[in-house]
């Protein structure tokens, strides 16, 4: 009987030591779950400037000349520059909206957002796109939870939209022969 009691006592101690208490459990759960703000920031940064699973827009545009940005395959596809201008248009518009500023004129025709540009304007388009995406990240970083809840769907869609068109940019650069596969996509 003493032996059985001892085995039961040993089993109870092992179970008690193996199971974390509720305070430890809460700490583990809090540490392993990302906040919505951090998830949104991560999405924005990895589609903008931080390479992770795919190439961000800054890397996709890096080193392009204006002439390269104007090139298209003559089958109706957009040029890299038109895609970049489209991204600038929509990111700028959505940033103004979440900042409570006027979004600016828009006819409703999305085709008009794939604007042609001059060689002189190309570097400005790239710099302004980078600036707008950085401002978006800062707006999310500085937003309170109430404001973020209103923005969740918009920001998630912006990140997906930016990733989609970045993939198109890389594809056009591959067709053109100006893509460096060392940047992440072979």
**DSSP E strands, number:** 0
Give Rg in angstroms. Answer: 25 Å
Structural class: mainly alpha
**What profile does the largest beta sheet have?**
none
Low-confidence stretches: 1-32
Mean pLDDT: 84
Range of helix content: 55-70%
Query: N-to-C terminal Cα separation, in Å?
Result: 71 Å
Explain the layout of strands and helices:
Elements lengths: L1 H17 L3 H11 L3 H13 L8 H5 L4 H5 L9 H19 L20 H24 L2 H32 L10
Helix pairs in contact: 3-7, 3-8, 6-7, 6-8
Verbal overview:
The protein is mainly α and 186 residues long. It has helices spanning 2-18, 22-32, 36-48, 57-61, 66-70, 80-98, 119-142, 145-176. It is globular.
In a nutshell, what does this entry contain?
This protein has helices at residues 2-18, 22-32, 36-48, 57-61, 66-70, 80-98, 119-142, 145-176. By secondary structure, the protein is mainly alpha-helical.
Salient structural properties:
globular; disordered N terminus; mainly alpha; about 190 residues
